[in-house]
Design brief:
The chain is mostly helical. The chain has 3 helices and no strands.
Length: 68
């Protein structure tokens, strides 16, 4: 009679993918915070100040996301 033993070890590839995924998550969180900050900054401007930048209130979300 023989006994087979299977062990699973996390491969270096799996570990690097997990670390990469965690890094991507925090990068996305940071980008979301930058977008929110741009949105807040632009939304606080008056219509006249937005117009001087060539923007309207309807442009705020697009500009906040694009970073333009």
């Amino acid at each position: 009679m023989s006994t087979a033993s299977l062990t699973r070890h996390a491969s270096p590839d799996l570990l690097s993918r997990v670390v990469s995924g965690i890094g991507a998550f925090f990068e996305a969180v940071g980008e979301g915070r930058r977008i929110a900050e741009r949105y807040e900054t632009l939304s606080r401007l008056s219509d006249a100040a937005l117009a001087r930048r060539g923007l309207t209130r309807a442009d705020i979300a697009r500009v906040a996301v694009s970073g333009r």
